[in-house]
Amino acid sequence: MDIPKHIAIIMDGNGRWAQKRKLPRIAGHRQGVHAVREIVKYCGAIGVETLTLFAFSSENKHRSNEEVTLLFKLFLNVLAQEVKKLDKHNIKLKIIGDISLFPSNIQKTAIQAQTLLANNTGLTLVIAANYGGRWDIVNACKQVINSGINADKLNESNYAQYLSLQNNAIDLLIRSSGEQRISNFLLWNIAYSELYFTNTLWPDFNIDELDKAIKSFNRRNRRYGVIHE
Ligand code: IPE
Ligand code: IPE
Ligand code: MG
Fold it and tell me: Best of 57, 59, 126 to mutate for ligand 2, by most ligand atoms within 8 A of CB?
């Protein structure tokens, strides 16, 4: 079985999971953390190189103040609690997105966690927080302009150096909860991703679900626009 080098997941459906049980939406987000733990550990064990998780989109900050505040709190607690375990599993952490929006204690914890795990050599775990694919592209453009590069010298390869994930291609993009859209996740890096959608809500997502997605990935014929005679 071919293990995708880079898997990205739009972890959707926490709210619906909670609503089905007549629980507040945050209960779904909390339950979703269990799925994150299981999937991170499993990806490390099967040799995935990079796992990129969409935790909070640029647009999610427009949800109710209550939900956003509770999500920030959850993010901080999980980050602080899990860092030792991530280290034990030799996992490297990279947070992408505009975290300047986050309370300063989250920013500090995020920097500390990334520094602590920087020399690990196992799975790279990327967490996208206050991230949007359009933000990423504009953010890269700003840096390109500041670099003073001549427009004739700009190409896909040197442009991509300024993107959050540079030119790292996502091999397999998974979205849970039945929605079949990108919702402003990594736009540049999914150009040739294989897409996999499942109706399973994120808190119910598990190893079996990931195995199904990887099996499906193995049946794909990745052509990249080229005809193989
Ligand atoms: C995904 O679950 C997590 C975040 C966007 C933070 P949702 O909160 O979008 O759950 P649904 O889509 O309402 O079920
Ligand atoms: C995408 O889910 C963002 C995350 C999973 C973090 P949303 O629930 O925000 O997306 P839409 O609103 O259904 O497009
Ligand atoms: Mg959603």
Answer: 57
